[in-house]
Amino acid sequence: MTAGEASDDDRREYEFKKVLENLKGLRGSGTQLVSIYVPPEKAISDIAEHVRQEQSEASNIKSKDTRTNVQDALSSINARLKYYDTVPENGLVFFSGAVDTGGGQTQMITEVIENPPEPVQTFRYHCDSGFLLEPLEAMFEDSGLYGLIVLDRRESTVGWLRGKRIEPVKNATSLVPGKQRKGGQSAQRFHRLRLEAIDKFYKEVAEMANELFVPKRHEIDGVLVGGPSPTKDEFLDGDYLHHEIQSLVLGKFDVSYTDDSGLYELVNGAEDALADAELMADKQHMDRFFKELHNGDLATYGFEPTRENLVMGSVDRLLLSEDLRLDVVEHACGSGHETFETVDRGASPSLDACPTCGSSIEVLTRDDAIDYLIEIAEERGTDVSFISSDFERGEQLMNAFGGVAGILRYKTGI
């Protein structure tokens, strides 16, 4: 996966997480918030028919307000369905309803999530005082795609680890003869035939793995190989795998079984390697940041210095904490002085006068700080990385540097 693709994945993951956080805090005054999960194999016409049926049945709801709100939510979903000819590869999720805004007021919202991180498994229609978010939250927790290979000289199985789900896909058995030769064969000839059979089987296993993994090579986070010694060592050392798949191998692990159960044994044995792999890129970026911070002038941190460097185009890589939850507010006074400040998401701005001239100010714009910084980064060709707080330096990015930092292309003095 290239740096650009990794950055895009991080951005999509952030946007997805932000939508979930926003939806989680919404409530309806009754059972009037509608959630619909649509699996990829479902026909749009079938979904539209189901929504119309639910609209008809909603006329039996006793509360007038709830009845009206449910029917309005379903009408909104039906209107959105008209934009689709087919369901996207991973499905669709609709959320719609009248949410409480305080003071007895409500606001109708409709949110559509196309292609969630994992395929929607089953059709679900849910109507309650809150949106049904658990299936999406589970997808977010189950991020990550790893190729799995277990083999010995008799059998091999390949499959996927998708988040926490292990999916066996292909299995092969070998014709490699046992170590005892049949009568009439010389030891030398038997040994040669056995080596040829082993080589042929390794090639078959590699072909099986390559067919499965190569089309997904830009999405795979790593490949795990398991088996007894020396089988797994011979297989990897022999360069049987496609070179791009070989480069994704995270490690080789001892396993006792080579059927479906061997895949589960492999994942259990590789637990530490999987945890390290998820954080490896984050650790490398933070190591580079700290190196530049201590040994040179190619590091910046804090919202305002990083923003200024971004605008100048001097930031090579923008580092954003996954835990950053800020809004950036732009003010202006009558004299044209512009001021930026960051506040907690949803909080009121703290400035009430222009810090330059003391005159009154007004809010020009208010944006999510991450969206604001990423927009500048994209205009300047800056790579963006979201950094987890699940390791020491990632935690320091949030707590010591305000969740925003950058590695510079050149010295700026800011």
List the keywords.
about 425 residues, alpha+beta, Translation, Eukaryotic Peptide Chain Release Factor Subunit 1, Chain A, Nucleotidyltransferase, domain 5, 60s Ribosomal Protein L30, Chain: A, 3 domains, 5-stranded mixed sheet, 4-stranded antiparallel sheet, 12 helices, flat, disordered N terminus
What does this entry look like structurally?
This protein is α+β, with helices and mostly antiparallel strands and 414 residues long. The chain has three domains: 3-141, Translation, Eukaryotic Peptide Chain Release Factor Subunit 1, Chain A, CATH 3.30.960; 145-269, 2-Layer Sandwich (Nucleotidyltransferase, domain 5), CATH 3.30.420.60; 280-408, Ribosomal protein L30/S12 (60s Ribosomal Protein L30, Chain: A). Helix content is 40%, strand content 26%. Strands 7-6-5-8-9 form a five-stranded mixed sheet, with helices on both faces. A four-stranded antiparallel sheet has the order 3-2-1-4, covered by helices on one side. A hairpin with a 2-residue loop joins strand 2 (92-102) and strand 3. Helix 2 packs antiparallel against helix 3. The two termini are 33 Å apart.
